[in-house]
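Duplicate of earlier report; SnoaL-like domain-containing protein input re-posted below.
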Amino acid sequence: MTEHLSRADVLRGLGASAVGVAAGSLLGAGTASAAPEHPNVKLIKDYYAAYGSGDVDALRRFFADDVRWTIPGHHPLSGTKVGVEEVVAFFAELAKAGFRAEPIFLAADGEWVVDLHRGWSTRPAGLDITWALAFRIRGRRIVEAVNFAGDQHAADRFFWQAYPLAPVPDRLAGR
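Output:
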């Protein structure tokens, strides 16, 4: 029997029981004997649920006032966003592209949470890659996030397509 598995399914290790059990346990889907879920993993799961709701303002409660969110690359949305307003504005732009995320793996150690997820666009469709995020948590708030694209060149191409710069006269107006 041939079964079609999504990229997320493959990365989760479906079909490889040891990997599947390990990933499921880290995501809290393990058996009753599994270790209790780390509170920072729970925080990031709740963050992804809020992100998935499409309500960008619902994300505010997860960020420290001085949050720093770094998006690598060479495209219009790259760079470090500082403070809740800049980070929320970034997510509002992602929402315009119908950006979605599906967590694959979450693990915590101290104040850090490592996340591996599938991220894809729907408007325009075309970007569908694996991303990794390193979250630093303090006081039940995200104080820092560094995003890593599985294919930075594809991400750069997509973001230039989805967020073209205004013509030079418009960009320079008011300077």
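Confidence is low (pLDDT under 50) at residues 1-5, 10-31.

Merging into the original ticket.
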